[in-house]
From TrEMBL:
This is Uncharacterized protein. It comes from the Eukaryota.
Amino acid sequence: MDGDVVYSKKKTNAAAVTSSSSSSSSSRKRPRRITSTKPNYKEKEEVEAPTASDIEDFSFSGKETLEIRAFLLEWYDLNQRDLPWRRISSSNEGKGDNDEEGSERRAYAVWVSEVMLQQTRVQAVIGYFNRWMQKWPTLGHLARASIEEVNEMWAGLGYYRRARYLLEGAKKIVEEGEFPKTVSSLRKVPGIGDYTAGAIASIAFKEAVPVVDGNVVRVVARLKAISANPKSTIKNFWKLSGQLVDPSRPGDFNQALMELGATVCTPLSPSCSLCPVSAHCRALSLATQESSAQVTDYPIKVVKSKPRHDFSAVTVVEILEGKDTTDELQTDGRFLLVKRPEEGLLAGLWEFPSVLVGVEADLATRRHAIDQFLKMSFKLDLKKSCTIVLREYIGEYVHVFSHIRLKMYVELLVIRLKGGTHVLHGKPDSKTMAWKSVETKALSSMGLTSGVRKVYSMIQKFKQDKSKPIPVKATKKNIVSKTKQNRC
Ligand code: SF4
């Protein structure tokens, strides 16, 4: 994941154990491969994904478990990255990890960082995390924040629902008066799933529970050479990881396993020669025995389903106020924003008025759909209740979500309302359909999604280009008149 790991030059036990492993490798079995009856995977169609029960017999022996724990923790102590969320408990000067306040501070930091890490790379998270902790250093501070502030802080990370859950979870914990300390109690907090609960409980409160993310799945699949589809057998990965967790240092162990996957046992080019647990790696053992086998054969690659293609007409409605000017595009009006429904994609976030349209929708069809939307939502009749100063198609922009590829046809509509914004139907921020009109300055500082920001930057660029003086063509007439002027 990141290339910033500084490996210690101190020799780990791995090398020593690797040599001893070669003698025992012949006794290791290849994972079973069964002819597929229901091929789901393009790249491995001949392999049937074993069911959950098929891999139940994979387990770590007592000796294996002890050695993996010891080697991995030793490696982690020497090589762990210095990340801001790992410093939180030690920054509580004079108090150790075990004091209540320190553990809760750590739990909060782990929670925020883990949710952010589900969104993007470690390096990108560092800036977001530092800004977040500066604004809301404790759970109590976060619980008093507004959703607008949280969205603003989260802008650019995507999956805004996760940010909303962080806020809701903080409010709930503060209300109840105590930070939950176990996986079972943490799971009751909105937005906290198995992964985050395991991370908080093990890292902050030392509960000996596993944490399974993509990195852990990869390492465990390789250690045991498991060919099963990790998606359909994920429970078994939790079970196997649970066997490995060190009861005296569960948090460090879980972080070590994830760190190994992120920095050494990477998806495409694992650095097996630097791996502290290579002696226990079946995938490596098989790759050493057979030239056609590779450690990257594990875990099996699951072909992602194709994203759905959606199309939408997006109209940036700018409402001009005050007196007419000669250059309407230079006058910043107020922009109409609509709040998305509280459920579904980008729930509760603000966007420019938009309507889903069909793939073949031409400009006239899209305009008709938007006109209907404005009429229905705001009683804004473009023919009767306003003067259209400008209406122009700007261009298209494709935004890719995890499961949807959304093509947006963007248009700018500049209007003057006959009677001011109060003629628009409904109270702003009403529960039925929340909307508001905001100035350019406020728009720039709002927590808008990257898709909305992109649309807004398209509008700004259009305005800038439009306001540039049009270069005069060097026609014969121009040249003659310029020559005459020069003579004068
Ligand atoms: S594949 Fe390589 S890096 Fe990954 S666990 Fe095995 S030996 Fe370690």
